[in-house]
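Re: weekly structure request thread

Next one in the queue (410 aa):
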Amino acid sequence: MTDQPTARPAVTERRTSPIGPETPVGPATPVFSPAAVVASCVGFVLIGALQALYGPAIPALRDEFGLSPSAAGLGLSAHFVGGVAGVLLFDRLYVRIGNRRILGSSYVLMAVGAAGFALAPNWPVALAAALLAGLGFGGIDYGLNQLFAIGFGKRSTAMLNILNAHFGIGAILGPALIGAVGSEHYPAVFLAFSLANLPLLLCLRGVREHVPQQTPAPESGVPGGQVLARSLGSVLGVFVTLYVLHVGIEAGVGGWEPTHLETVGYGAGAAATATSVYWLMMTIGRFLVAPLALRHSAQSIIAVSCAGMTVCLLLAAIPGLAPYAYAGVGLFIAPIFPTGLPWLNRAAPRARRAGAVVIAASMAGGVAAGPVLGKAIEWSGVRAVPLLLSGVSALCLAATVWLIRATRTH
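Done, posted below.
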């Protein structure tokens, strides 16, 4: 929300928005009403749950449609493909129509896609429905992240961490709900999710229709201002690299932690519990960093996060410390995604599509992490999982240091 001017009259000017067409800038118009903020957080709970529902439903999907494990896993892949397409598509549409219609259509697409997946008569129809739900997922993920990144002034980093923490809540609740009712009842869960999207449409009137570009002048000597020392293309390229790599680590730990822990001597139940703790710590970490973001810069938070993540992954190679070290990875990796977006907006305020590119890249990183890490594990063995991921984490730290230097103002 913008601050009230004190010593000068309100002046209306026109700027081009990264999320919406050119529109007059009012002096004190909030981007979100309080009800819309709450609804946005609920929306992120729902998209977190949607993404996490496909995996626990796989046993029932295999029985119902006669699928192999790899074929059943295509449901989540179709969702991610739709998500990337949704980010890029809705980024294009944001310059033509208002935020409310974009967010509203995204909620409707998620609802229709989830219902279609639940009621699909065959697997091709189910995959098409997952793709459709993914389109809506991408629109909400991109739209709300971008609006929160510019809509709360100096509080944007804190609010983004709170918003994305609710994604984690959904990712924890979704599988728990499937586990409670049984995977054979996955259609009822997907239908319930579909219906839960619809009340959020009523809260969209609290979202500002068009949002002006926020380009506050950077403070002299403070890192994170506009790009001066490096080309814009190089800075965006390294931001994309940072997002792809850190999401690859996130997905890699979530996918391979149970296997690694069982390999080094833990029981299946203990390994599964430790993996749940990893996701829980990621959610808690985003809530914890919100007050820190009001006092510390985004780049310093990300630098500490990458360093801590690297150390924890190295410690995870020690069997006795592994479950606790993986929990530390979840805590340190938590702030990177939401904290990087405001930094990117300040570093490259004129690059309107920068946010869409890095969010789409993060989804692509999640898709690519599985086969790439799997091939590396074939060569090195399961015990090397934390060491492989620590190398990737070290690259994230190097990218962060480069970006801090590249975006430093004179």
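DSSP finds 15 helices and two strands in the chain. The CA atoms of residues 54 and 76 lie 6 Å apart.
Next request, please.
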